[in-house]
Specification:
The protein has 110 residues and is mainly alpha-helical. The two termini are 16 Å apart. It has helices at 4-14, 19-22, 52-56, 59-79, 82-106, and strands at 26-30, 37-42. The radius of gyration is 19 Å and the shape is elongated. The longest helix is centred in the C-terminal third of the chain and has 25 residues, at 82-106. It is 60% helix and 10% strand. The chain has a two-stranded antiparallel sheet. The protein has one domain (4-106).
Length: 110
């Protein structure tokens, strides 16, 4: 199940908004009481706060986005810094290409 942040972001985008533009107008919170994340404050002008049912419709899309982000993070770490990559390209561009292809093939996106 996708996290609340992801589902709220998708809800905003589906309604012509962006999380970046609206983040000051809402508060997502977790009281560490076992109840999980929730919307503590919603002041998005002209857009009603989403219901649990509305947010649930974004679970599968949110799961895919979060999974792909996790894979991106793994790839980024595996690739190494841009400085290391430039050095590798300088010494053997074909080996660099093969290494990156191997990383991508080992960490495929859904």
């Amino acid at each position: 199940m996708a996290i609340l942040h992801t589902k709220v972001k998708l809800y905003l985008e589906a309604n012509g908004r962006t999380y970046e533009a609206e983040r000051r107008n809402l508060i997502l919170q977790n009281n560490s009481d076992g109840a999980g994340d929730f919307i503590a404050s919603w002041n998005v002008s002209g857009l009603a706060q989403p219901t649990a049912e509305q947010l649930a419709t974004y679970d599968s899309t949110g799961d895919a986005i979060e999974s792909n982000q996790s894979i991106d993070n793994i790839r980024e770490t595996s690739y190494g810094s841009w400085r290391e990559q430039l050095d590798e390209i300088y010494h053997d561009i074909d080996a660099w290409k093969a290494r990156l292809l191997s990383i991508k093939n080992s960490n495929t996106k859904g």
